[in-house]
Amino acid sequence: MHGSRAFHGTWNDTKCDLAKPYICKISSGILTQCLPFWMPYGRYCYGVYDGQQGFSWPDSQHYCQSIKAELVSIHSRAEVEFIRNLNYTNNHNIWIGLTRDNNCEFGWGWTDRTSLGFLNWAQGEPNAAFHPGEVAEENCVEMYADGRWNDNNCLNKRGFVCRHRQCKDHSLIHMHSTYNPSTR
């Protein structure tokens, strides 16, 4: 990294054997963890169910809540891409935590009550369609394999993605706090 006034903060490749100043990062000593087989991204951990058998939106939400998670709320294009890469088998479209909310100004809300600042609807969606022979309107949202969203009947069977905040592993705090680099 350059330190000169003109190039301050920019990067450049150089020979590895040159003596240069350096910067180290020291962690807080608190490690974060995800549930087994879940993937971390930002402050959250994500788990995708994409098996052969699909589940309704309410059953998917119930499963997520039973493990102290929520159907995912999505807040950026990067998060969409991350989730798309987790759904590697593409057996189903996947339910996300967006649902029709009559108390909400925009008509849609995340189940975890985070803000609705990012939308990724497929063309022509949401259409709130009512299909002959079906009891319910399209009040729940699924994500297609391409990352776009579609409102659909909540009873349809889909895969789903849950999200929980990363947990702090307090069992490691004591070990890290007693380490003193000056004794080495």
Automatic annotation (TrEMBL):
Record-linked SUPFAM superfamilies: C-type lectin-like
One Pfam family in the UniProt entry: Lectin_C
C-type lectin domain ranges (all copies): 41-163
UniProt keywords, alphabetically: Disulfide bond
Keyword Disulfide bond assigned: yes
InterPro entries linked: C-type_lectin-like, C-type_lectin-like/link_sf, C-type_lectin/snaclec_domain, C-type_lectin_CS, CTDL_fold
Keyword presence, Plastid: no
UniProt-recorded name of the protein: C-type lectin domain-containing protein
